[in-house]
Amino acid sequence: MAINVAIVNDLTFIKLVLRDLIEKAGFRVIGEASNGEEAIQMFLDKKPDVTLLDITMPKMDGITTLKKILEIDPKANVIMCSALGQQKLIIDAIQLGAKDFIVKPFRSERVISSIKKTLNIE
Question: What is the value of pTM for the model shown?
Answer without folding.
Answer: 0.94
